[in-house]
Design a protein that fits this description.
The chain contains 3 helices and 4 strands, in the order βαββααβ. By secondary structure, the protein is α+β, with helices and mostly antiparallel strands.
Length: 103
């Protein structure tokens, strides 16, 4: 399994547009072959900054999505909304702790 984190910074006037678009695209992204998990995060200090956090069975599945009709629809619409280039990381999970912290 790989984890993919993508950081996107939007122009302030495009934040709500992106949120609305993502809500429509998320089910289609989640339905992509090998996608096991998808979250959208928003930075607390800078509400223009969003992160997608996704889990994929294999790097080949992520690449398949990046060549899919869904990605071909999403990326050309999202990219012009950016205030800065997107950044992306693909990482392997080396340790996971599922226990909730004690209060």
């Amino acid at each position: 399994m790989i984890v993919r984190v993508v950081k996107m910074t939007f122009r302030p006037e495009e934040v709500e547009t992106f949120r609305s678009l993502f809500a429509g695209w998320a089910p289609r992204i989640r339905a992509s072959r090998g996608c096991r998990y998808l979250e959208l995060w928003q930075d607390l200090a800078d509400p223009r900054v969003f992160f997608t956090h996704s889990h994929w069975d294999a790097e080949a599945d992520l690449e398949h999505y990046r060549r899919s009709p869904v990605f071909a629809e999403v990326w050309p619409v999202v990219k012009p909304l950016f205030a800065a280039p997107a950044e992306a990381w693909s990482v392997a999970v080396l340790h996971r702790s599922d226990a909730s912290p004690q209060a």
